[in-house]
Here is the input.
Amino acid sequence: MTDIATCPVHQISPLLPENLSNPYVMNARLRREAPVHKDPLSGIYFISRYADVVALAQDHQTFSSVMPGTSTRAVNSEDPEILAIMAEGYPNVATMLTQDPPLQRRYRKFVDGAFSPANLKRLEPFIESTSHALIDRFAERGHRANSSRSSVCRCPSPSSPRRLAHPCRICRNCAAGPRHSSAT
Here is the structure.
């Protein structure tokens, strides 16, 4: 593990497990020293200042969300088989997050209704009960808890499957309860 405080800024990789689990020191350093930072492992650019992110998001003519070709992923492994597979990359799939308008709007239109105020209001009891379940787990462990590890769930959000009106079938370890955590 590299000490993020003393590592040369150009060697910082936001995708390393230690930076993903605790990104705060890295993010503060990148905002100060390298607000536009190219990850040395993946080649992905990270923009760390809010105003810059907003400006880029609003200028899709200059800055595109489209990811061409295949991607390689930073892998923290020395296993030659894993490295060989990951070196081949994987095909990028068009999604709402990886496209520019007008195609991005078509994808977004598909899910917009799920995020309407009325639908979100209906989710309040679920969100409240999930929050209480997570807090109860923390209380069982004492006053110290790592919320991201204690409530790990492979869904983007335990409420996302319900927003999109389908049951989650990939999670086994989240606070959303038995219905949400049904096995595949």
In short: Confidence is low (pLDDT under 50) at residues 163-167, 175-184. The chain has two domains: 9-92, 116-184. The longest strand covers residues 36-38. Residues 9-92 form one domain.
